[in-house]
Amino acid sequence: MKSKIVSVLITGAVCLAAAGCGGGKSGGNHAGTEPKPAATVLSQRLDQPPAMPDEKAEPSPAADASFSENLEYELRRKTRAMAGAAGSITAECPKDVRSENGTQTTCKTTFEGLQVEWDVRIGEKSLFSTVKYTATPRQGILTRDGVARLLYGNYKGSIDYALCNDIPKAVLAPLGSPSKYGCDVVMKGEKPSGFAQPVRATDSGPRYY
């Protein structure tokens, strides 16, 4: 029986169908604290991005698709979620990857030409002829539209715009760690603070903290 994906999120796993801001201390002859760094108004303005295209625009694999093809389809979806933006996505897994518990393999996806390797581990079979698996990217992807979509979503109705330090359309970034990019959210009726908070790439989309 050929395999078909049943995309279900279960505690980090999905299912496949089987087939420094401290101031200085005062002391000695020095009173007060060290001066704070000067604020800088960031140059890149992010306005609200267009809505994401319907995820269903990409049809699911055919009923007779191989396990590898189903896995590639799921990784394209996960890459899209990580980027938080529309773009050209491809995926490649070994053609002979098996759906047996304990199988480990490496797959590759690309988003707008940026390649990410994924460590994939196949888990136990569950009900309805499905098999759990986990897929962990070795790098993250940040996108300008993804960051904008996050900020406007987090501050829905209260944000005027956001200023950032020249985030590219898409760029590789460390996973879960502060990137070199940051943004200053400007609320309605307020002015820029001049201080950026870092954005991070995660496997489920950009984060701002």
Strand content: 25-35%
Largest sheet: 6 strands, antiparallel
Multimerization status? single chain
- What class do helices, strands and sheet pairing give? mainly beta
Number of DSSP strand runs:
13
Query: How much helix is in the residues?
Result: 10-25%
| Mean pLDDT score | 84
- Globally, the shape reads elongated
**Which spans of ≥5 residues are poorly predicted at pLDDT below 50?**
1-13, 19-32
The helix/strand series, from N terminus to C terminus, equals EEEHEEEEEHEEEEE
Secondary structure tally, helices: 2
Itemize the secondary structure elements and their pairings.
Elements: E1 9-10, E2 13-17, E3 44-46, H1 67-83, E4 89-92, E5 104-111, E6 114-126, E7 130-137, E8 140-143, H2 144-154, E9 159-164, E10 170-173, E11 178-187, E12 197-200, E13 207-208
Antiparallel strand pairs: 1-2, 2-7, 3-9, 4-5, 5-6, 6-7, 8-10, 9-11, 11-12, 12-13
Describe it.
This protein is mostly beta strands and 209 residues long. The chain is 13% helix and 35% strand. It contains 2 helices and 13 strands; from the N terminus they run βββαβββββαβββββ. The protein has helices spanning 67-83, 144-154; strands at 9-10, 13-17, 44-46, 89-92, 104-111, 114-126, 130-137, 140-143, 159-164, 170-173, 178-187, 197-200, 207-208. The strands form 3 sheets. A 6-stranded antiparallel β-sheet has the order 1-2-7-6-5-4, with helices on one face. Strand 1 and strand 2 (13-17) form a beta hairpin. It starts with 8 loop residues before the first strand and ends with a strand.
